[in-house]
Amino acid sequence: MLNSKIEAAINAQINAEMWSAYLYLSMSAWCAKEGKPGMANWFEIQFREEQDHARIFFNYVLQRGGKVTLAPIDAVPTEWKSALDVFESTLAHEQKVTSLINDIFALTLSENDYATQSMLKWFIDEQVEEEENAQTLIDQLRMIGDNGYGLYALDKELAARVYSTPSPLAGK
Ligand code: FEO
């Protein structure tokens, strides 16, 4: 049975992951409109991954006999100044998500909830990857500056990103 404090924290995280999905879909739309289809593809995959994150938490609440409570999803930004701005916003957002995951992990320590600690391990590793990916793209965009060919080449590279089902949802 899921402790009620942990249940509330995970329900809040489901909402945060759905907000992230909505944010990345908005970024995908902005990139597409700016003529950067590869970046739009990259954010479209982020959008799908965030929905997966929400689903992993959703499945976990049910598996532990808890109640899933879906709250409204707040509005997301719709405008960015540049490709660099969109990826800097991505990194800032992922750092915020990391601190949300860390807060839930801290709560599991005070509540002695070992099963939730184990489930959260996948997310802790995932956040390291999420921050690293955004930082790498920021570094590349800073190197490119406003070199048109550089932006074209990076956009082409990001068009090749493909979606894969995260391991906690494999076979579900
Ligand atoms: Fe669900 Fe991008 O962290």
Textual characterization of the structure:
There is one protein chain. The protein is mainly α. Helix content is 74%, strand content 0%. The protein is built from 5 helices and no strands. Helix 1 (4-33) runs antiparallel to helix 2. The longest helix is centred in the C-terminal third of the chain and has 31 residues, at 114-144. It is elongated. The model has no long low-confidence stretch (mean pLDDT 97). Bound molecules: MU-OXO-diiron (FEO). MU-OXO-diiron binds at residues 17, 20, 50, 53, 94, 97, 130.
**How would you characterize the largest beta sheet?**
none
Structural class: mainly alpha
Beta-strand segment tally: 0
Enumerate how many helices there are, as a single number: 5
Strand content: under 5%
Helix content: over 70%
N-to-C SSE string, H for helix and E for strand = HHHHH
How much is the average pLDDT?
97
Instruction: Estimate the global geometry from the Cα principal axes.
Output: elongated
First-last Cα distance: 22 Å
Bound molecules: MU-OXO-diiron
Poorly predicted regions? none
Radius of gyration over C-alpha positions, nearest whole angstrom: 17 Å
